[in-house]
Amino acid sequence: MKVNQRRQTIVNRARDAVKQGRKDKLGLFMITQNPKDIDGDIFKQTNTNVFLGLREEVITKVPSIPRGYEQDLQKYGKGQAVIKAPTSKPPKSSAFPTASPNTATEARQTVI
Fold first, then answer.
1. 40 with 72, same domain?
2. Distance between CA 65 and CA 91 in Å, rounded?
């Protein structure tokens, strides 16, 4: 099997899994430093997006970044994010704690 055929087979299986998982109310976390690398059909199945600081060249290639935050995302530091979700209109800009030993727990509670 050629590399491109193998890659397409993997993408097709991932698309099917994501669609079936959504029907069954299963969650999926996709974490990447370059959102354009995620297949468009898979990306469409996500409801909530958390955008951390991104470089300009990435921002211009990702259509799902909320309008009005393109410049801010380039300046975001540790613990800053824009959360785009079906229930948060307009998108929320959040700052998470960075120094406490319970940072991960506090951030999860803030996002959820």
1. no
2. 10
